[in-house]
Amino acid sequence: MYELIALREFATADQLLMEALGEEAMSAYLARDFDGAAAACDKLLKLRPGDVSASELLARTETLTASGVAENWDGVMVLTDK
Q: What's the CA gap between 14 and 67, in Å, rounded?
């Protein structure tokens, strides 16, 4: 999930930090480091409460931590609702 926050040349320090945290969260998630992904999402949500992408990724980490993942897990989640 990606969302344009600002053009880099006009981005504030907080916006650049949000970008870095989003990348950190997604990289950790894909590496199956769900605790690391959750920590990055928590930091991101403190900077930007209500961030939909961070909230969704955080929920996914909680689900996968509880249920585990298959050996062939590739990070893809199939959505069943609109």
A: 34
